[in-house]
Backbone:
């Protein structure tokens, strides 16, 4: 290891430094430092954005909350506007890592890593969040769903960086669900996780949004299940149909944490549990 | 490169390689060996220290990242009360959290203890009367292979009591 280290002081400096080949952005370090030590990272220059104040703000802006890429999970969970207006985000992030990890790890880092198990992606997918990508020519926005392409893959191009996330504030009528199955409560990489936003109307499901992690190359929205359930009552039949459809939406693999079969089973069970325990 | 920060209340300036971890800077260069390395991957919490009042895994922080920050390690806890009364001389007085861990038998081999104590300190800094659930959340990033955790939980409750009484 003989990386060069630069503490980045401004977005302009970051854009400039990103031009040099082998430049990698470092922030909380919770994933990167481990990868570096395992020799899994070929970086020539580390650009440390952990003190870049421009990327460390949470702002509310006409129906949206914008979270800078370098905001830590703890900062998000503690923020009153997040807890009040997008409780599903605080709820999901509380299950991520441990206190120490949440104090260092950042929302931008978690998304850019693009782990199929990325915990922060589940609530953000449910919220129809957009990521804001910047380069020297300006900004572009991409739906998070389109941003994540597969394990470790995103649509970020050379010279670009993720500057923040825009989260539309959801209807306060939504109830939030987030279930994560792992070997241990804290610090676990999910075997499977399922999140939902749900609104009922006259005993039937008015709108449901569903997202799952660790059961496909990237965390995904489960649109076919959402469509199936919208407007329906929760009955043994509709639950059974939803269980069948959800299996068709996912493509889990067998790895050292669990088998693909187990994941099929768990995700269907999580969905059934969610539907059968929801408030009327 | 040169790094300057506050370590346990003292301003220091050190020279470190850019890819040195904070953990190694503390242990190897500054000889503060109370901070332990268990896993080196953020799983065990034995390396927990406070940066600007928050508990972090020092195995996941690069040394240059603490430039300009305020650090507290386990050495700083005992120290912070050791000089408080003249008749104690040089003797190192334990911090109430350390006392609580010792008195409640929350220490067996002791390898995990500095980490648990730093996580406890960070919790009690913000919340002087935590619920059991809040204690468990604060400690979820710390592993102990010996105690079975119940004595640790007891010790944290007792430490909170001691510290409330001391104020
Ligand atoms: S050594 Fe840092 S968490 Fe285990
Ligand atoms: S006392 Fe031995 S690991 Fe905790």
Residues:
């Amino acid at each position: 290891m003989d990386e060069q280290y630069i503490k980045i002081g401004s977005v302009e400096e970051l854009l400039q430094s990103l031009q040099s080949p082998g430049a990698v952005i470092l922030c909380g370090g919770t994933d990167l430092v481990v990868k570096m030590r395992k020799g899994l990272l070929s970086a020539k220059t580390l650009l440390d954005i952990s003190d870049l104040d421009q990327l460390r703000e949470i702002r509310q802006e006409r129906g949206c909350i914008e979270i800078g890429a370098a905001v830590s999970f703890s900062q998000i969970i503690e923020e009153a506007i997040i807890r009040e207006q997008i409780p599903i985000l605080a709820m999901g992030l509380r299950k991520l890592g441990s206190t120490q990890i949440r104090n260092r790890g950042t929302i931008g880092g978690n998304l850019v890593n693009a782990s199929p198990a990325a915990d922060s992606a589940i609530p953000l997918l449910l919220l129809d969040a957009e990521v804001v990508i910047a380069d020297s020519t300006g900004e572009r926005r991409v739906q998070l769903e389109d941003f994540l392409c597969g394990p470790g893959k995103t649509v970020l191009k050379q010279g670009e960086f993720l500057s923040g996330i825009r989260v539309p504030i959801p209807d306060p009528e939504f109830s939030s669900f987030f279930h994560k199955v792992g070997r241990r409560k804290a610090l676990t990489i999910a075997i499977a996780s399922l999140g939902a936003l749900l609104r009922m109307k006259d005993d039937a499901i008015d709108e449901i949004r569903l997202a799952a992690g660790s059961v496909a190359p990237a965390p995904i929205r489960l649109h076919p299940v959402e469509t199936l359930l919208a407007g329906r009552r929760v009955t043994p039949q509709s639950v059974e149909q939803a269980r069948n459809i959800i299996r068709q939406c996912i493509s889990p693999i067998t790895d050292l944490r669990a088998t693909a079969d187990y994941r099929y089973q768990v995700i269907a069970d999580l969905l059934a549990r969610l539907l059968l325990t929801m408030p009327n | 490169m040169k790094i300057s920060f506050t370590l346990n209340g003292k301003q220091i300036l050190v020279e470190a390689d850019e890819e040195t971890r904070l953990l190694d800077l503390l242990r190897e260069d500054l000889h503060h060996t109370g901070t332990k390395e268990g896993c080196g991957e953020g799983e065990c919490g034995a390396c927990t220290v406070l940066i600007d009042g928050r508990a972090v895994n020092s195995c996941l922080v690069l040394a240059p990242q603490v430039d300009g920050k305020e650090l507290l390690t386990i050495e700083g806890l005992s120290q912070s009360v050791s000089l408080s009364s003249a008749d104690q001389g040089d003797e190192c007085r334990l911090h109430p959290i350390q006392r609580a861990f010792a008195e409640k038998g929350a220490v067996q081999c002791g390898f995990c203890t500095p980490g648990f104590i730093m996580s406890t300190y960070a919790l009690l800094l913000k919340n002087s009367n935590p619920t059991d659930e809040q204690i468990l959340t604060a400690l979820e990033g710390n592993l102990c292979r010996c105690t079975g955790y119940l004595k640790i939980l007891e010790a944290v409750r007792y430490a909170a009591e001691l510290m409330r009484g001391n104020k």
Observations:
- Chain A has twelve helices and 14 strands.
- The pocket of FE2/S2 (inorganic) cluster (ligand 1) is lined by residues B 37-40, 42-47, 57, 59 (CB under 6 Å).
